């Protein structure tokens, strides 16, 4: 039996197909039970054999090259069906997401801000918000901890979140890096994909996700209580505040922070006047990724369009 056949046929069906090839076909009169056999049905369904009723009825093989083409078409249909199923699932999940958001945030004043006092719920909600991010998670970290940071608790960012192209950025207060264990925790965070900068002093901690939800601490550590804020007005103000700090923060080694490498390439091509499509082809990435990087650059530099982006990039020293 040729092993290539077993990639598309069961072993018994592959054996029958080779038998049909060698014999030129099998008489259905001599083998009356053959058409009902699972091997024969598999060959017929997958386009490797057919029943012929000219003269004596026979089960005959389909020419190998045509059979392979039939197998490829069958596989393509299966892949297309699976793709359509995934698209349908995504649409259903989007609908459920809207229901979820409506149940958590109905738009009533009492739902704009919710106070949480259970430390475990605060921690779980912080993780849940980050995992649900579509494009951006930003945070502020101060020197106030309920216990010293444990580098062993650092975890890599989930693959499914990174595949969505979510950007993770964090600003540390300078004093936070002097807490035992913080430096090692910072190193592991950077290795897992966080972009980190340092600012001399931060008044509070913060987690902001997609400019749709924020966790604000009610005390120094954030574990005494936190406010879950979904007010678009407040989250937009927090975004502006974070981007202002980010533009003034420095890299961990103390040098002025530059644009991340993957965004630097996009920025320099944007400044040449290239379209998103042209940039995507040049860098071998998708247009969606290019647009995401451009939006991140606009926010980071407080620009409103590509012209003001160029001016701001030169002003901040991001390009020569």
From TrEMBL:
Signal sequence coordinates: none
Key words, A-Z: DNA-binding
GO MF entries: DNA binding
Cited SUPFAM superfamilies: C-terminal effector domain of the bipartite response regulators
CDD domains with a match to the protein in the record: LuxR_C_like
Gene3D superfamilies from the UniProt entry: Winged helix-like DNA-binding domain superfamily/Winged helix DNA-binding domain (1.10.10.10)
Chain segments annotated as transmembrane: none
Record domain HTH luxR-type: where: 252-317
Entry protein name: DNA-binding CsgD family transcriptional regulator
Organism field: Kibdelosporangium banguiense
């Amino acid at each position: 039996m040729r092993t290539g056949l077993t990639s598309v046929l069961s072993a018994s069906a592959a054996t029958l197909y080779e038998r049909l090839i060698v014999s030129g076909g099998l008489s259905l009169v001599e083998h009356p039970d053959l058409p009902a056999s699972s091997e024969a049905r598999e060959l017929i369904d997958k386009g490797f054999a057919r029943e012929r009723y000219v003269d004596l009825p026979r089960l005959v093989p389909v020419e190998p090259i045509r059979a392979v083409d039939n197998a490829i078409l069958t596989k393509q249909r299966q892949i297309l069906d699976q793709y359509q199923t995934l698209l349908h699932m995504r649409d259903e999940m989007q609908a459920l997401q809207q229901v979820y958001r409506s149940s958590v945030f109905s738009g009533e004043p009492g739902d704009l801000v919710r106070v949480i006092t259970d430390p475990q719920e605060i921690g779980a909600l912080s993780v849940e918000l980050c995992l649900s991010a579509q494009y951006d998670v930003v945070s502020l970290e101060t020197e106030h901890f309920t216990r010293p940071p444990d580098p062993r608790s650092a975890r890599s960012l989930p693959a499914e979140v990174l595949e969505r192209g979510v950007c993770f950025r964090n600003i540390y207060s300078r004093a936070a890096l002097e807490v035992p264990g913080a430096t090692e925790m910072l190193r592991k965070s950077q290795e897992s994909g966080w972009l980190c900068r340092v600012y001399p002093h931060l008044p509070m901690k913060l987690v902001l996700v997609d400019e749709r939800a924020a966790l604000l601490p009610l005390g120094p550590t954030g574990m005494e209580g936190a406010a879950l804020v979904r007010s678009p007005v407040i989250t937009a103000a927090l975004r502006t505040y974070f981007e202002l700090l980010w533009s003034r923060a420095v890299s961990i080694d103390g040098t002025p922070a530059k644009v991340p490498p993957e965004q630097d390439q996009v920025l320099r091509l944007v400044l040449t006047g290239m379209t998103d499509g042209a940039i995507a082809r040049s860098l071998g990435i998708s247009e969606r990724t290019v647009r995401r990087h451009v939006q991140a650059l606009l926010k980071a530099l407080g620009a409103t369009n590509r012209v003001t982006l160029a001016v701001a990039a030169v002003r901040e020293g991001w390009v020569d």
